[in-house]
Amino acid sequence: MLARILLRIALGGLLFAAASANAQLFRAYLASDGNDANACTLAAPCRLLPAALTAVASGGEIWMLDSANYNSGTVTIGKSVAILAVPGVVGSLVALNGGPAIEITAASLKIALRNVVIGPVAGATPGTSGIVMTGASRLTVENSVIANLPVFGIFVQNLATLRVVDTILRNNGGHAVWLENGARAVISGTRILDNAYGVLAQCSQPGLTTLAVISDSAISGNTEGVYAYSYASGSTSRISVARSTIERADKALFSYGTNGGSTEVNVGASQIVENNYAWYQLGSATVLSMGDNLMRGNATSFGTKTVFPGE
Asked: How many CA atoms lie within 13 A of 2 on its CB side?
């Protein structure tokens, strides 16, 4: 308790000076001993994330001050905001009651999650996924853990943009990251471990491209490492992998295009090791190697790999 009080005093100088008692806050606060009837200020923090989202201004920040769960059901984020736990604490968001922990349905938002843990609750009605984003917004996930969920870690579609930095996605029952119909992702410095599947870029809408760029990451123990799949004429899916390791997958690099869909998986400066299939190429699909990868200890491969030295 003393440490929490000292932390609040230390942060007090950063408190936004509202123009009136009714003004929304630039910075709202959550604490395990907070109350949702409070103003969500540093001196009077709220308890759960929905209350802080109501109190904070668009473009503001929500700070979790100590280790606790900060939701009791799916939280729909409908404004641009950064949500973060202060260093040294665990800001937990849980998936329960048959839904995701976080849902983003609105367009044109800029949202950041930093230093949070998303997972299930033992003994509660199970949730489904960590984050579901169907609105064409921008989401950044930094220094976080998304683990042990029955379905997806992160699901993104409809021209939304995802950035995942220095994060762990592990032991999820579906894909660690599923991108669909024009969604785009940049994943760096991230560990994707022992999920049912790794990263999927899928497209079924003509004229759209679903894109994932993965760098400096480890993808281990997933049935598929990376999988680009397009299945409608004029649709495109592409995954680029650089300076990364994919190991212990059934299919490390999986590229599949059908019904006129076009797919590409390209890889450079990476290790593709100890997989069943180093690459698996089907239909109107391409697997491109930059010619500087280590491919060793894989049982086999399927389809044609094109070596492309680049510029």
From this structure: 0
